[in-house]
Amino acid sequence: MPELPEVETTRRGIAPHVVGRTVTRVIVRQPQLRWPVTAALAQQTTGERIESVDRRGKYILLGTHSGTLILHLGMSGSLRIVPADSTAMKHDHVDIVLNDQHSLRFRDPRRFGALLWTRGNPRHHPLLASLGPEPLDSDFSGAWLHRQSRHRSAPIKSFVMDSRVVAGVGNIYANEALFLAGIHPKRAAGRLSEQRCRKLADSIRWVLSEAIEHGGTTLRDFVNETGSPGYFQQMLHVYGRTGKSCHQCQRGIRLIRLGQRSTFYCPGCQH
Hints:
Layout: H1 4-18, E1 23-28, H2 40-45, E2 52-56, E3 59-63, E4 68-72, E5 78-83, E6 92-98, E7 102-107, E8 114-118, H3 142-149, H4 156-160, H5 171-181, H6 194-213, E9 254-258, E10 261-265
């Protein structure tokens, strides 16, 4: 699944190509995504000038004068800038055609993505209203994590993946941040000291920032807006490295299941 760095990489990639452009038409080839793409979407967005491209958690927000198009990449989605007359492939479900003869093309083989239109403040939309602070913003801190974790018995990995606690920390980067912070993924969130919460918050920020700088992680079929892969996978310490030697202590990386998610850790470095 594209996680926050992949979504941010996509946002940064498409923004120069769409901001200031006007939507001339919307082509919907497959409306049955996570939520059906309504027949009214084309009418609502055609003629709108895209004024901004923002991100909230794992959602991309295309802002116009009249409203906001909320996009989610789902499990396998991607957005690419293509010539408007280029041939659509099997999983190219929606084209947002722009007035420069290019299209913002939404591709989603597994069809868990979404395109929704809202005329209100998108941050008040039901999908976004309950999201916690952005992990790269100043209002996310170790002190915040510590306050939110008090009396919580959930494993710390599940805790930081809760979007109500912090927005957009997915499975790959939760694994990596916990390794960098030296925290076992099964440790109860409420048992962490404020000092360890500060270290974890710093590790979350660092690993997400590094992943963004390297264009995200290529797992399965994630690519950016040009179709190029991300390269952060080459820097992973624990994720997907079951049985391989830890880069720090040389012990074998272990795999367990937490909350139905694959969880990787080093038994020597994390406690």
